[in-house]
């Protein structure tokens, strides 16, 4: 763990307290975060996460200490990390305790959970769950913080538990009209008619760094991509569906709302495009 203290990145032992109980990130979820993959002791996609982190902070009106501090915090947690272990580095920025005190900025590093690795390798079952918002609403409602990766993930975590109660691994959220949005911690991508598709970000979903990387590399490799307002029926009809995130990579959806589905052998190409 590493924390920004008196203007410098300080490495601290895992058990050491670093945040006051008055921190508004704790009491109100008033903050933002990023989850960054650590592969071979490095963070190859840190820049894309820092760019989104800055956008999230701006949407919440939070002062971010800047990329140099985040880079120093990441370097501090990576210093004694075993490069053979795949890691999950979390960056947190909260409003801090208030009353003019600086924001809280810290980095945590832990091994990627085995369940995440299993889903990447074996795929996962998902259920579609309604989020109750019209697809065009969050673009007009900045107070709902669409597109920001906030610490207020209690709804996302509850959706995951609900999926588990239904015997599934994960969730695809849908809008009030039944359009596909995103997973609680992932971007939805599907392949249909020779094209890779993902939902539009003006629905208020998070702009996925993994999806952006996949689409850029797919285009360069001659695989067309499109931003598409799709329904759950479109996912059922697709050749393949994946949940994408930086740490999990591309996890193929093998079951959607209880219906088994394949990936038409496309997951291998997606993984190759995302590698490196
Ligand atoms: N959507 C949500 C709500 C997420 O929490 C995440 C992952 O953090 C993603 C999408 C995927 O983003 P990325 O590919 O940048 O990890």
What does this structure look like?
- The chain has about 280 residues and is α+β, with helices and mostly antiparallel strands.
- It folds into 2 domains: about 1-110, Aminotransferase class 4, branched-chain amino acid transferase, N-terminal domain (D-amino Acid Aminotransferase, Chain A, domain 1), CATH 3.30.470; about 115-275, D-amino Acid Aminotransferase, Chain A, domain 2 (Alpha-Beta Barrel).
- The protein has 8 helices and 13 strands.
- The strands form 2 sheets. Strands 6, 7, 8, 9, 10, 11, 12 and 13 form an 8-stranded mixed sheet that branches. A 5-stranded antiparallel sheet has the order 2-1-5-4-3.
- The radius of gyration is 19 Å and the shape is globular.
- The two termini are about 25 Å apart.
- The relative contact order is 0.14.
- The model has no long low-confidence stretch (mean pLDDT about 95).
- The structure holds pyridoxal-5'-phosphate (PLP).
- The site of pyridoxal-5'-phosphate has 14 residues, from helix 6 and strand 11.
